Amino acid sequence: MARNVGDEEMTLGMLSAEKANGLDEEAQRHTDDEGDVDGQTANSTQDKPKLRNLFFDDGKRRIDFILAWTIDHKRPETARQARQVFEENLIKEGLELEYDTRGRDVNFVKVHAPFDVLKRYADILKLRMPMKMILAEQHMKEKYSDWEEDDFGLIVNRTRTSNNNVASKTPLPSVGARLWNNTIQLVRKFMVPFHYDETVLPTVSRSYSCPYSSSREYLFEIPENKDEYFSKAIRSWIVDYILRRQSFNVSNSKTFSFGIKKMLSDGFYSAAYPLHEGHWKAGSANNARKVLFDHWANWTNCLKFQPIDYIRFYFGEKIALYFAWLGFYTLMLVPATVVGLAVFFYGLGIMSTNIASKELCDPHNNITMCPLCDARCPYWKLSDACSHAKASRIFDNGATVFFAIFMSLWGTLFLEFWKRKEATIQYKWDLTTFVQEEEPPRPEYLSKLENWQIFKMNPVTGIQEPHLPFWKRRFPIFLASYSIMLFLAAIAVTAVIGVIAYRVSMLAALQLIPQHVSSNSTVVATTAGLIYENASLVTTVTAALINLAIIIILNVIYGHLAFWLTDWECLRTQSEYDNSITIKLFALQFVNYFCSIFYIAFFKGQFVGRPGKYRTIFGGRQEECEAGGCLIELCIQLAIIMVGKQLIQNNFIEIVVPKLIKLVKRKCSKETREQKLAKTPWEKDYILAPAESMSLFYEYLEMVLQFGFLTIFCAAFPLAPLFALLNNIVEIRVDANKFTTHLRRPLAEKSANIGIWYSVLYGISRIAIISNAFIIALTSEFIPRLVYTSRYSPDESLSGYINFTMAYFNTSDFAPSDRPKDIHLGVISMCRYKDFRNPPWEDPEYRRSTAFWHVLAARLAFVVVFENVVVVITSLISWLIPDVPTILKEQIHREAYITNEIVLKTELRRAQGEDLNSLGGAHLSDENLRYSPHHSEDIELKKRSPSTGKSKSGSQIYI
After folding, report:
1. Where's the Anoctamin dimerisation domain (predicted)?
2. pTM, whole model, 2 decimals?
């Protein structure tokens, strides 16, 4: 099983600021943590803040992990014995322990992994470690003397002419290649203001690596202080690997009494975590955590790129990959925002100049509309819907189709470019050959089945594990679980029906305003008249706000029930559990958020019927679209739910609530300043919130739902990318701040991709194509306008379009109980309604007209053409854009070949008795020794100087 891990070069970048302040490693080892509480620093003899104590009491052995426990009053002897056995097994494994039992409530075990243990597990797990640069240098001089790295990190062949000493590239780059390179350089220059400070965080480049072997140490650059060879992230990861495999039971009666996760689940330990490198507040000593806060998590960096490599060094690949994906997604929103704003301003420009809008707003047309409800609602003038119709034209115009096609292509390009970006990250972080290890059973799974009598051998580990028969045990539970899920989804649908009933009744109530408003109060009459004129808008907005409140409440309920159902299913591994909870929560929240939007987009106004013969549900008329159409209502609903979700969940819950909780805790705390200063680093980290495995899940879920808002309904709301961009700029810093300041340091887990979320994003992008096709065809007025101008308009303009879309109804055909009681407009013999039907003087009356079938055929044809064209184009784009860049494929093959050649030649020289120790001493940052080809990510990191290939600070870090 191959494992790919980075090196300790984080120290070179992170501690450069510390060295600049005169804080060396020796000082770090022998200072305590007094100046590390809430940004307060203790005055030392040199008036410098002290670094956090990360070592045992001897000041030499580094603390790699902390185990904490509280006294278990229910079973103290059982817990003590389990801890004793577990810790004895850790010592047998080679780990070194030191105890801190001074606390009254919480006790701690400090864990240190000696170099021999780290070396042994690096060999077992085949961790990829950097090779000596001097070996690569010698091989490159022999094999690739005419090859070197160009300004873009790519390898080119340079030959020298016989007449002069000027280098020239061979072969000569094509015009397209030169144009592309010039474009990249221009983009890089434009992006310079958005880069982070390279003087603090130097550019990270890649070096050759191969699986570590203790028998071939001469291949690797091992420093004089061997404890510094493995990075802190690797050290904690190896310790966690050991902790997860040690038994805590004396007898073998309980086969599955092993692992730190099981002990945490049983309550024998209360926490297990690696330490943060120091404090993050102003005035604290410089450390890796503070550097990340100052140059990444701080709000002053909200428009800066992220130092992804340094995030990886501190938090590990899994968390760094999330932030890399979020940053890439946010960057891709920029072109979508520009196009969306262009479409919006185009709509604003044509809002008042549109011929159809002018006809609708012209009171001289004197078009009297049929009542919006039976009996109580009066007749009304079409010109009353003028403002509604004008607002609708902002979003319902020809540019809507272009924007829908653009966003469909944008979604595909985003996913395709992310795959390429992900491949580059995998290569740079040595994840191309990463294989997930065989997962042990979940502690909760083993606890539930502790007395289970049916066992089955695991084909991988060979261990007898509790087994749940599928048809007798699992199938009934799954059936019940997903039946409950369908019921929960039905609750969301029921809530939407309730909101529909509110809209119908609210609109009917507002129609009665002219009958009940007294003319004695001018203010009341004016306000009531304003509400009456915008009755549809008022109803839509209030209904959307009510729907948003219901969505937030249901989300809380869904979250608890989804976890309860997944726990009930008793899944064996953590990945099975994570996938199951992902499906449940995403499905429930998808229905919850999008149910009302789907109703407005595809069902409202489609099956209303006609005056005198309306279709009813539970005795009431169905909702119908206003004269301006349903698209504006869809836009309002989408905007309120999307923006409201971001403001309430993303900003209030994630920013305001934690600050309020922290403020309350601080006010309620009775600790004095001296007591806070006296706390050890492990005590301070213990009181932080635990970094749970589901932390990233909710972040991904939040962004995936946002992606759904952007793509599935983009035709109705071109400003969605703008709001998403603004939200994500804030979201990156909120998440960064949370991981840096509010949570314990998470374990540096490894992950080669974003997992199941890519499949979810791909499915959403496919749904979006169908959704936008039907929104344009059914909800917008684009197709009827197109049919009118091409088939019915005498001058191929929209003149007369409003009259074309209005059918006639003879008011004498109303049933006596349905006739309006309000006759303030006088006696009306003929009213109009929005539909394509025959007038009452034609036979057969009120039947679908020929125009209706023309429009319907055009709508269906548009859906078929739109879907097929977009699907073909997106599929062609996916086929044309390779998942892995061609140059990266060549780089991977070249590195594999060169690495193998280095190993073979070095082994040969060793067999011939050559002293390989004489090859040591090459410093990684020595630019003169850098001949190996590297694939850099200068767009994501920093632009190098074209002449030297170095960062602006003149320094680089190799991994």
Report:
1. 55-308
2. 0.82
